[in-house]
Each structure stands twice: as structure tokens, then as C-alpha cells.
Hints:
Layout: H1 14-39, H2 41-88, H3 91-118, H4 121-136, H5 138-159
Helix pairs in contact: 2-5
Amino acid sequence: MTQPPHDEPTASSPNELREQVEQTREELGQTVEALAAKTDVKARAQEKAAEVKEQAAAKADELKEQASAKAGELKAKATGLAHQAQDRLPDPVKDKAAHAAGQAKAKTAQAGQLWEEKVPEPVRQKTAQGAQLARDNRNLLLAAAGAAAVVWLVCRRRKG
């Protein structure tokens, strides 16, 4: 028989010895389970992948919210600047702009009709898909256009 470790008391009766043996078996079983879990590389990799996936989804949600908020801010700024620019325009310029817009609409309708008559069907389908994509992402495109307008106005003011 081996000597018991110095920090563990020896059993004084057979019942105490049985209890100590049972406790040691339980601790040993837990240790073996822990070691087995550490050596199960596939399970650990799956756990880590799930954890990373969860973190990525949370970060994506956070970034999406930030982008949406920023887009709203930029849209509001662009709208305000557009209104300021429009308010500063003299009436003759506004009238010319309205007239030019009407002409542009007429030319656009004419070009659209010509497009329908002359362009092959596959090209029209691809163009329609692109237009639908633009309509589906209208807010993003408007935010980008607003941001570009703001940048242009800021650069223009600094030069002037």
C-alpha cells in the first residue's frame, strides 16, 4: 500500500475510508470528463465558431444601427442644405429650373420610348433589374447623394 498524501487525513474507520474512496472517484471522474472535453477538438471548434458567429451578428447589428442613424443625419443635413440653397435662389432662376425640369422630363419620356423601341430585350431586362436594385436601396443612394452634396457645398464654401 502507498502512503497517503500528507495534507489528507487518514480514515479512522472503514466507513470513512469508503466515503473518501467514493469522493476520490467522483473527483477523478470529473477530472477525466474535463480532460476529455479539452481533447474534443471538434466540439471546442464548434463552440468557438458559434461564439464568433454570435459576436459577429451582434457587431453587424450594431454597425447597421449606426449606419442607419448616420444616414438619417446626413439625409436631414442634405435636406436642410438643399432648402437653404433653394431659398437663396432668385425667382427667375427658380422659374428657369422648373422649365428645365419640365424639358428634362419630356426628353426622358422621349428617350424611354426610343429605348423601348430600339434596345434588345435582354438588355432591357438587365437594366430593369438594375433599376429595381436602385429602388430597393433608395435610402442608401439618397444618403450617399446627400453626403456628396454636403461635401461639394463644403468644398465650394472653403474655396470661395
